[in-house]
């Protein structure tokens, strides 16, 4: 049965260095949950704590309502898939997949049936008698996957399982993993530093930075409503535009962008001071009358959209994407333009705390 995984105030220290700084997370049974963040933010450390390979220096790791801090890794009801596959080189594909079932002393006929089913699910039944060195990277990762889920663990842990594959195979394999997870319904915790992969594969994502959780949400939430400028900058592309916020009345706050443009928006609460507007390239558009004045530095035709790099008169460089089907003729480099956006669609952040303040 799939477990809920609950992390309460988890702390990990390596000497003086704090790798996890009181992390709280709750993964629901059957959920595909991704830990996403730049290199060194603590993703693998947290995954290894859940697996039982890292000790817990503070807080609790729970499967359902059971604290498992001190439970041995092999008693935790987990399956694990690593970046480097970690399949046994001297065993055939079928023997690799059967390994965990043998250890659990399943009867022989059940083992061969389960192995057949697992190999069928990852579509490598025809390779069952091969040794790992006779397989491609993608095929080896399918073996590792089958070996992990065949034992029907309550939680499946995956640490950058696709990062050794080439770009095309990575995209194929993430669909294989997603479909498989949906079908099996095993709670899955997936580590990656690739934001596109995280958006594509997850039910929910926790974005991490320096041992802290910056935001938890669905891929759509995280992309459309970043809680802070770190998430806005890490997931997709964001243009950050400085402004002054006069928001003593939060229902009618006025944003002033270097005297060139004044906008009103709704804030969560009263705030007056320096602000940052974060707008996605596709949220910006050309406006003949209003908006921020600037000049096109370079235009790049990319098929389905055109990417414009624009230098604003206030000195900032921004990126505006226009979908080809909505665009007129390609605008030439050097053209003077005005750039506008719908203030209710973009995020406004407190320049000091970097947290979102707009409604
Ligand atoms: N055994 C260790 N001893 C000392 N420091 C460690 C140890 N393991 C990890 N760290 C440090 O803890 C921090 C978090 O490491 P971790 O491997 O969890 O990061 P990560 O987010 O998984 O990064 P990556 O994407 O590069 O794998 C890093 O700064 C790392 O140098």
TrEMBL record:
GO MF assignments: ABC-type transporter activity; ATP binding; ATP hydrolysis activity
Domain of life of the native organism: Bacteria
Record domain ABC transporter: where: 5-235
Keyword Nucleotide-binding attributed: yes
Keywords: ATP-binding, Nucleotide-binding, Transport
A GO-annotated cellular component: ATP-binding cassette (ABC) transporter complex
SUPFAM superfamilies: MOP-like, P-loop containing nucleoside triphosphate hydrolases
UniProt entry tagged with the keyword Protein biosynthesis: no
PROSITE patterns per the UniProt record, alphabetical: ABC_TRANSPORTER_1 (PS00211), ABC_TRANSPORTER_2 (PS50893)
Protein name: ABC transporter
Source organism of the structure: Lacrimispora celerecrescens
């Amino acid at each position: 049965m799939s477990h809920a995984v609950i992390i309460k105030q988890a702390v990990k220290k390596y000497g003086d260095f704090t790798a996890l700084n009181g992390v709280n997370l709750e993964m629901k049974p059957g959920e595909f949950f991704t830990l996403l963040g730049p290199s060194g933010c603590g993703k693998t450390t947290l995954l290894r704590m859940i697996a039982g390979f890292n000790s817990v220096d503070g807080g609790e790791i729970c499967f359902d309502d059971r604290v498992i801090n001190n439970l041995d890794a092999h008693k935790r009801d987990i399956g694990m898939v690593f970046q480097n596959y970690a399949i046994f080189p001297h065993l055939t594909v079928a023997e690799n997949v059967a390994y965990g079932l043998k250890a659990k002393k399943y009867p022989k006929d059940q083992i061969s049936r389960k192995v057949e089913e697992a190999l069928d699910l990852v579509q490598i039944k025809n390779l069952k008698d091969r040794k790992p060195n006779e397989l491609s990277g993608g095929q080896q990762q399918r073996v590792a996957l089958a070996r992990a889920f065949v034992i029907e663990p309550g939680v499946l842990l995956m640490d950058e399982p696709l990062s050794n594959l080439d770009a095309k195979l990575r995209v194929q394999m993430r669909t294989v993993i997603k479909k498989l997870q949906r079908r099996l319904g095993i709670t899955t915790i997936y580590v990656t530093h690739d934001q596109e992969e995280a958006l594509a594969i997850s039910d929910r994502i926790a974005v991490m930075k320096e041992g802290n959780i910056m935001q938890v949400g669905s891929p759509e939430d995280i992309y459309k409503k970043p809680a802070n400028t770190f998430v806005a900058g890490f997931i997709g592309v964001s243009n950050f535009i400085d402004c002054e916020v006069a928001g003593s009345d939060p229902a009618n706050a006025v944003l002033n962008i270097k005297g060139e443009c004044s906008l009103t928006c709704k804030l969560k609460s009263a705030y007056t001071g320096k602000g940052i507007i974060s707008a996605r390239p596709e949220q910006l558009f050309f406006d003949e009358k209003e908006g921020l004045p600037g000049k096109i530095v370079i235009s790049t035709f990319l098929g389905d959209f055109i990417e414009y790099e624009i230098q604003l008169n206030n000195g900032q460089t921004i990126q505006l994407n226009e979908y080809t089907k909505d665009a007129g003729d390609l605008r030439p480099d050097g053209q003077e333009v005005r750039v506008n956006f719908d203030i209710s669609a973009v995020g406004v952040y407190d320049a000091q705390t970097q947290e979102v303040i707009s409604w």
